[in-house]
Amino acid sequence: MKRLAVPLKFLEDLKMKSVRELEGDSTLLGGFLWHLYLAVQGCINIALKTISKLSLRTPESYADAFTVLSEEKLIPEELAKKLTAMARFRHILAHVYTKIDLDRVHAVLHHNLADIKEFLKVLATKLQEKKIDVSQI
User: Which 8-state DSSP code applies to residue 116?
Assistant: First the structure.
């Protein structure tokens, strides 16, 4: 979970930048998209490691991993829905099938960064309750 500290800090530092500022600086934009990808992929990896550690049902997709955690009451259902959408969004970032909508990406930065932080906090608490060493996830 500590691996997400760097991408989250980078993204947090960019929250005050406008879409136009990002568009005007390809280095900054590239860093932004990369760190957003790392943050979302990091959440997916944590979800998958948790599922494996607890021997839960195998998710059908990356997005389904958050549903599995919700089914097991490890994260709230509403949070799982938000993270599922982010996992699908990650697919767009990873494969760049279409032109990336920077307004949408910017909205993710402003509205979903808190969801990632909530996910880390809630899951860490639940794992500690189950006597699982969070550093192993």
Answer: H
